[in-house]
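Example 9 (inverse folding). The structure is encoded as follows.
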């Protein structure tokens, strides 16, 4: 599939979207015949549900073997990877991708800073828990105080982590996340999961 073919196939959306980006989670896009090149639609002013319906009605995704995603529906980590390594297939002449991406870069930097602070917080509390267990080990008579106190600290840390919320799925590769967040996939059984929202 060439860039021109992709742009022609998605021409019916040019009024609804601002840009069509190509993204390969492995590396820069070299071989467009491979199926691991994803088509990312940038549509900040359109409803994702409406776009999904239009795409499904107009394009035979299985025949074309397209992997299509909407930028706004993706995980923050994926958005960051796409910003760093994308290729523009088409964009509206008056649309500035750099200005649009600036917001997402700020969100990513803010999130990354928050995760680092959270790790420092957990490490500092982890040292405290370790100290409590050492006291309980060397002074068994104090174990009745140290062990319940450590559980209270663990519960507090767990609640803090849940309250902070994580948008980055740690331990997953970009390719795994792309597969998870794609709007359309070749496997028909996946549609119910993706379109349920």
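The amino acid assigned to each position is listed next.
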């Amino acid at each position: 599939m060439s860039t021109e073919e992709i742009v022609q196939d998605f021409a019916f959306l040019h009024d609804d979207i601002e840009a069509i980006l190509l993204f390969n989670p492995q590396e820069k896009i070299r071989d467009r015949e491979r199926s691991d090149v994803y088509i990312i639609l940038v549509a900040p002013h359109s409803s994702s549900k409406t776009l999904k319906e239009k795409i499904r009605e107009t394009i035979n995704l299985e025949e074309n073997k397209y992997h299509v995603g909407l930028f706004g529906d993706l995980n923050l980590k994926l958005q960051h990877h796409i910003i760093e390594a994308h290729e523009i297939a088409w964009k509206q002449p008056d649309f500035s991708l750099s200005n649009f991406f600036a917001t997402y870069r700020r969100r990513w930097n803010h999130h990354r800073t928050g995760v680092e602070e959270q790790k420092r917080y957990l490490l500092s509390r982890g040292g405290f828990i370790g100290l409590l267990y050492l006291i309980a080990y060397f002074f068994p008579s104090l174990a009745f105080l140290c062990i319940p106190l450590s559980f209270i600290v663990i519960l507090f840390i767990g609640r803090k982590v849940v309250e902070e919320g994580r948008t980055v799925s740690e331990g997953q590769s970009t390719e795994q996340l792309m597969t998870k967040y794609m709007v359309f996939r070749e496997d028909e059984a996946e549609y119910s999961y993706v379109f349920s929202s």
